[in-house]
């Protein structure tokens, strides 16, 4: 095993902050260099430690609004290769889109009530460090359930099976993992994904970006309140 990934953590709740630090320490994969409780402390710690990844709560001082999203946007400009995992208690597509909207590479959106699942948390961390993206499947599931209330959207032409495949893509799952999760063949997954790309107009997009673009189109179908 190589050197641990260097992380900065931002979470204003002391118990949650200590719990995350302990959980990551047990993994042997991530070394938490600084544990902060506010956006200014987070930005200062990034400058001091130059980490591989940031894990940040979505709401914290000074405003308790969207500081985690602000951090993701600011760090996109100042440290474009730094991975950011935004941890939220809200399965809210508008928050997820705010995190991913200016570029999904190196960004993850996961739910706070699932961070105790170390394997899932490490998957998100590894994804953003590699420049990929990760979206908690509960967020995607909520969107799929709510789509019956929508008019036509970019994913309305997909079949039920294609929606299931797209939901798996949104979690960062590989084709092999999708095949296992859905109980279908690898070849069937490839066919479904190619159909999804064609229906969403992504057939000509660069292969490395098509999965992320499909997820973003999926997220953009979120219903809005009047």
Q: Could you characterize the architecture of this molecule?
A:
- The longest helix is centred in the first third of the chain and has 14 residues, at 14-27.
- This protein has 226 residues and is an alpha/beta fold.
- It folds into two domains: 5-135, Response regulator (Rossmann fold); 146-219, Arc Repressor Mutant, subunit A (Orthogonal Bundle), CATH 1.10.10.10.
- The protein has helices spanning 14-27, 39-49, 67-78, 93-100, 118-129, 137-146, 160-170, 175-182, 186-199, 207-219; strands spanning 5-10, 30-36, 53-57, 83-88, 107-111, 133-135.
What Rg do the Cα atoms give? 18 Å
Give the count of helical stretches: 10
Number of domains: 2
Alpha-carbon distance between the two ends = 52 Å
Low-pLDDT residue intervals, each spanning 5 or more residues:
146-151, 222-226
Oligomer: single chain
Helical residue percent band: 40-55%
Fold-level CATH name of the largest domain: Rossmann fold
Summarize the biggest pleated sheet. Answer: 6 strands, parallel
CATH architecture of the largest domain: 3-Layer(aba) Sandwich
- The total count of strands amounts to 6
Helix/strand-derived class? alpha/beta
